[in-house]
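This section describes the prediction task in plain terms. A model, or a person checking by hand, is given the sequence of a single protein chain and must write out its three-dimensional structure as a string of tokens. No templates, partner chains or ligands are provided. The sample shown here is typical of the held-out split.
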Amino acid sequence: MFYETVKAAYQAGKVRVGLPAVGGGDRVTIEAEGLIACKAAFLSQAERLKLAELSKTEAMAIKASQST
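The expected answer:
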């Protein structure tokens, strides 16, 4: 329901996504402030996982660009 809003805030740098450690399950934490934090609380598990995948993809892109 609020995925697109939280995703846009993530892309703007206003949301932090905490990824679980390897073997640590699939619990994704989302840190935000204000109204975005309230909206993030209502994300479904599937939406949290989509946000985690976006975060992983961006992290891998940054890592690849630093290694070249």
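For orientation: The longest helix spans residues 45-67.
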